[in-house]
User: Fold Apple domain-containing protein from Alexandrium monilatum.
Amino acid sequence: LQAQAPLSRSFRRPPAACVAPADTMLSKLIMACLPVVSLGKVTDFDHIMLQMHNHRTRNTSNASLAPVWEAVDGGDDRACRGANSGDRGSAGHEYDLALYPKSLDACKVRCEGTSGCKGIEYSSGRCEVWTRPGGITASAGVSGFTCLRLVRELPPFTPADGGVDRVCRGADNYDKGTQGVDYALIPKTATLEECKSQCRATAGCLGIEFKPGHCEVWMRAGGIGYTAKSAGYTCLHYSGRSVAQPTATTTTAMSSNPAFEPVDGGIDRACRGTGPDDGGKEGEDYTLAKSVASIDDCKARCEDLGAVCKGIEYGRGRCEIWTRAGGVGATAPARGFWCMRHRLPQPQPQPQPRPCLYVYQEEGTCDLPRCFFHKHGYCFESCASSDTAAKCLQHRNLSDSCFWDGGRCLQKCSSFAGWWGRQNCPSTRCVWNGGACQDRETPQPQPQPQPQP
Assistant:
């Protein structure tokens, strides 16, 4: 082999003996041509052999799908990981290592031609072709490395009711949907292809509405059910799944969490304070957490702070928790980032109790202790409704029926009259004498004997 090495370097084409039909067994072909393969150096012939091997091992189920590359957590300065940022994978089982690739594109070609390839990790001098069944679901920060996930071009978009001059609708022709719930608005989208890309990158996308400068990514549970006529707009169904599958680390997933609403569309936006140039101050307007696995994890950190958190900015593993007093007031363009405002659920108004008189008229009862049955045959607000001595004495001009007893307003025993009074005369402080409710006699203090001098 060493004697043949110089010969192999001079070849730019494989010798005729090495040209074989496509159905020739790869092992026989390698053995026949082994003398012309130099050791420790990749030649043009090696590249041809690799292409033949890739042709034999290519996943035919994806043959009709064009490759699409997705950056993992931003891609740059990221090393690929398996289940989490500490899972480096197993060489030979979850990824194959190739040394001295010519370029990032050459590393991509290796992956595209490898059955079951899920993505690549590339750096100068090395190429990892990941075939882990669960794919690349995490990354770690490593300078000089690039981590990319391989996905496939998905089924095309189809027109909704012809598509042209149509706007998308939900349950009927008048259902425009709710921004942040049924669709996400991405402003300043110049082309239809850009709008389609936003849909592919959004988990749960079921269609788009587009007009130059306006892109709606629809995620409504029932999809786009109807359309309406509107010149200049295009409405398309999306029949495939999203390229970015909703995994634990998909940073572009649109969440339906009602506690968060996109700011200026949310996608490709960075949060700002009073204006687009106000990036805020770390430690004052926001706190920064790094290596956060997903946008949902970032949201969870915000929700843990309750009303203190005003919103989040997330992208490439960075999570900014905005606590600025004025909240997120603006955004600025930033590709690969999300800006969402945190909105706490508004307290629901509590039903006000009906006036006691109405309770008696409708139900024939008094709602104790709030209501009190008057001896003339109706209910009124009882003394118990008063929480101060002043209110107790002025309560419905019934000062003769209420008295303040060291921190609470009580009904006088004499107020309990008639058949109702007999049943409700408070036995703890009153006594029913057969015809009326009266105060219990308070024992008079007995004089204490004085000690003898």
About this structure: The two ends are 131 Å apart (CA to CA). Confidence is low (pLDDT under 50) at residues 1-64, 241-256.
